Amino acid sequence: VLAALLISWFSSKKWYCVAFILTYVCVAWGYNSPPWFGSRRPVMSIFLLGLLYALLPLSFGLASSGNHLTNEFLLFGALLVGIRMSVSILKDFKDVKGDRQHHKRTFYLVFGRKPVVFISGFLAIACYPITAVLVLRHNSANLISVAHGLLVLAVAVNIINRLTLFGTASDNGLIRIFQ
Fold it and tell me: Of 76, 79, 154, 165, which is least packed with CB atoms within 10 Å of its CB?
């Protein structure tokens, strides 16, 4: 939000910045405040975090650069939300003891380990490779082969981490994977 305020000061497209700031503040407010209380609703929580950390900043960049909304952008944005959701759903593993003590309704505590592992694994296996393909399709001079290799490596590491979830049965084992 602070970056958007700074950009709006110098931008000729001030209404993009204002719209982004208002949208971001409303979604962030809805995450912890009535009537949504998104942080208290397991499914809404991971979806809102995907919007806040992936789609809204990406949309702000698109709008402030003067580019237009395309089907490829919508697909890319949806994939980034999926990737962020696959990470957000795992954040509860490390806090499980405290969340139980304080009766928090996290996705993990409400639905259990198997759905968390399946959803995180599915989102990662589905979203990471397609995102990489979309990025690699644009063979511009800005993306050198080293960057391509690093992208493929990052995709592989994230998918391998998700696959290790399927063979881990304990909370402590899950915490070790994603520390």
Answer: 154
